[in-house]
Write a structure and sequence with these properties.
Strand order of the largest sheet: 1-2-8-7-6-5
Oligomer: single chain
Strand content: 25-35%
Number of helices: 4
Number of strands: 8
Distance between the termini: 22 Å
Helix content: 10-25%
Order of helices and strands: HEHEEEHEEEEH
Length: 169
């Protein structure tokens, strides 16, 4: 998490916006909270976490991201170039894109700050799902969560393209 602060400090004088992009290992409540405290944009491939809980200790409210997205219509589709992997050739994946706003509730076991309150975080989520993967291939099914506004297909596609930049490293 300190890397988040150091990275953005290095680029603070640039006229461009710096967005931290992480895979699922970055899907930590503390990272989202730290990014908010530093006012730094974050884009994370998320696990299928519970969101939209009415309270931290609620066991009856909230739902998994996939269940939330299953109720939503696709905003559109996009084509993603997937690189060659160990035993699979590079390929194109045609995916549906869905967007929604979410609220992330602080975890019950989180250490409380001096004022005793942890904020609920208002975030945006994008789901990218491949409907017809080639035989023998796992379908693309990504859950992306971001602190950046995503209300349109164009904004969602931009975030997906940022996430896909990882394939170029």
């Amino acid at each position: 998490m300190e890397a988040l602060r150091h990275t953005h400090a290095c680029f603070a004088t640039l006229p461009a916006q710096v967005v931290t992009v992480c895979d699922r290992e970055g899907d930590m409540d503390d990272l989202f909270l730290r990014a908010r405290q530093l006012d730094r944009p974050l884009l994370v491939r998320a696990r299928n976490r519970v969101v939209n809980k009415s309270a931290t200790h609620s066991k009856i409210s909230g739902e998994k991201l996939t269940a939330l997205f299953d109720k939503k219509k696709a905003s559109g589709s996009l084509q993603i170039r997937l690189p060659k992997s160990k035993d699979k050739p590079a390929r194109e994946a045609v995916c549906d894109v869905k967007v929604t706003e979410i609220t992330m509730t602080p975890p019950r076991n989180h250490a409380k700050p001096a004022d005793g309150k942890l904020p609920h975080l208002s975030l945006y989520a994008v789901r990218v799902v491949e409907k017809k993967p080639p035989s023998g291939s796992d379908p693309v099914d990504w859950l992306l969560v971001t602190s950046l506004k995503v209300k349109t297909l164009e904004q969602a596609v931009e975030k997906v393209k940022w996430y896909c930049l990882k394939f170029s490293f």
